[in-house]
Amino acid sequence: MVQFFLTAGCDSVGHAVRKSLLAAAWFVFLTFPLMVIKVNTIENTVVWRWENMGYVAVSIFLGSFVWRWLLARKELKEDNANEETSAEKLLTKVQSHPVLKYSALAVVALLAGLYPQVFDLYQTNIMISCLVYIVLGLGLNIVVGLAGLLDLGYVAFYAVGAYAYALCNMHWDIGFWYMLPVGGVLGTILGVMLGFPVLRLRGDYLAIVTLGFGEIIRLILENWGDVTMGPSGISNIDRPALFGVKLGITDSTIYMYYIMIGLLVFTIFCVNRLQNSRIGRAWLALREDEIACQAMGIDKVKTKLLAFALGASWAGMAGVVFAAKTTFINPASFTFWESAIILSIVVIGGMGSIRGVIAGAIILILVPEYLRDFAEFRMLLFGAIMVLVMVFRPQGLISAKRKIYKYNDTNTAGAANE
Amino acid sequence: MEYFLELFFGGLTRGSIYALIALGYTMVYGIIELINFAHGEIYMIGAFTGLIVAGVLTALGFPEASTLVIALMCAVIWAAAYGYTVEKVAYKPLRGAQRLSPLISAIGMSIFLQNYVMLSQTSDFLPFPELIPQFGFMERFGSTMSSSEMVIVVSTILVCIGLTLFIKFTKLGKAMRATAQNRKMAMLVGINVDMVISATFVIGSSLAAVGGVLIASHIGQINYFIGFIAGIKAFTAAVLGGIGSIPGAMLGALVLGLTEAFATGYVSSDYEDVFAFCLLVLILIFRPAGIMGKEKTQKV
User: Fold this and answer.
1) CA–CA separation, B264 vs B261, rounded Å?
2) Do the Cβ atoms of B224 and B117 come closer than 8 Å?
3) SS3 A231
4) Across the interface, which of A150, A377, A385 has its CB nearest the CB of B100?
5) Residue extents of the structural domains in chain B
6) Cα B29 from chain centroid?
7) For the segment B164-196, what is each residue's pLDDT rounded down to a tens digit?
8) What is the fold, at CATH topology level, of the domain defined by B2-131+139-286?
9) What is the pLDDT of residues A353-392, one digit of tens each?
10) Do B56 and A386 touch (CB under 8 A)?
């Protein structure tokens, strides 16, 4: 084991050390100007930070062993790529026993229900934003994970939902509960409007057009000051009211939490049903091979449009919730970074897998909240993890499994998926 | 008329910079059919390296003209090294994977590089020293065209001519064209495809670094975020000209630069970036193959 780790991809330990030294030297050269030197061009002073050079050298030297080991392991596993990790095995085991499955579900439900009673307001607020990201992730999962359309402007639909609620609330005092479905519908309409012309494009063009679209929406929000209040944003948005009764800040946060739990359960239910339906199978087929799919008689444009519109509708609803939760929105909340975070939730969690997306959101949103000291490294790590996941584990943390029907003598369906 | 000329030369300058970046996009796309999202970041790293080297040299008391040349050279060397490394780390292990995988890896790389520069340098705007010398004979043009604008346009034209000759007449250029046409066939006739791909990244990154240093010196400030918008616009230019085609990228960049200059000059400067994005969406919808590109039918 240790031997394999040290010499993965090399002839001997000496060869491996030489390779790692070379890599360390290369990266020291590469990072030299940016990591070591810092200049002030106004006062003409130069700061040399030689200690950084040492950090780079050591971390690359050690990292290159891990890199080669992971590469070699990936090559070994190429043949049985569908092998499950231990966590996945556990999940499958739990799911295949009805008693275990329902007791696990009950525990999760109990934990979710008691959460705001046990923890304080701050924790509840963090959990709400995590839940918002789970819903966003599940929505984007329909577009990226199931239908295989890379959407980099997902945040535009989120922004539209948030602004729709904020503006209607400001001008006409319309309540949260009316706007929640309206936000979803607006997202859908926008999704169809954008999707109709661009869905004919190939995958990578689609990515760039949606990216451009997301930026257009943000720039409009920023510059159309008469309507959207420009960069200063809209404040004093109403929190949701319970049957017309306005709640205090503590109660309304707890109320908000339960609304999000409800929305999440609704989302999981819908996505789960969709994914195993005729439409869901059409999405998966489209993702795998468009031409074969058309030959089988699936309407390509209609199916893609449906995925796009459905994904957008969840972003619209999540936007309404976001505006009601923070009571203040401005265009800075809807930058490309937000799209990138949601995308990394889906990618790192596991494209097409509901459990994966939930796990991804919990890891990517909750962990940085508790590691405040490392907050500035958050996006750096996201980027690095995205690359590493794509290189070493393209299916994500918890991979999606297709429903397999097994016919055996006792005539029962085999292991079901999510 | 003077206003028109000012806008025209401003557009020409923008177009030149877009062309220098767009060439990298279009060459990489031509060979491995990947939108190299991290390319804008390479441009930004080139500009930062130029700034750092220029800062060190100025502190040591070097004269202005030699500072520009050395800074430019260092920027090219380091940007090329970054381009090479990015390809080796993020794209090479993914060759032959699903179509979306390298694209997501490229986005991750782009996020990583931006934050790497932000954390190792600064998140504020940094003033960039004026490295391009002011020529006396340019004064008669007044505000219509400055020295730095002239330098940018002329050097871009020289670089483009050089690149075209390189692709046309050298052995490596021939190998690149062959690889772009059919990678497997190129392998069969003995071309080292991995080397050609690396060379493409190195050349594209060097061009982007030249653009980065020149425009940063012209505008006078840089930020870790400049690569994102410049990258998208250069990509727009590449698509406008027909992605994969080198003269197309130059033409597309020129059209985009002029369109932007006139639109901001005559319509509104608030929506500067919106024009480019709208242009991108419109081209992709109505003429996805671009001005000089050829329509390709998808084969099974």
Assistant:
1) 5
2) yes
3) helix
4) A150
5) 2-131+139-286
6) 13
7) 899 889 999 999 989 888 888 889 999 999 999
8) ABC transporter involved in vitamin B12 uptake, BtuC (1.10.3470)
9) 888 888 888 888 887 777 766 777 878 888 888 888 888 8
10) no
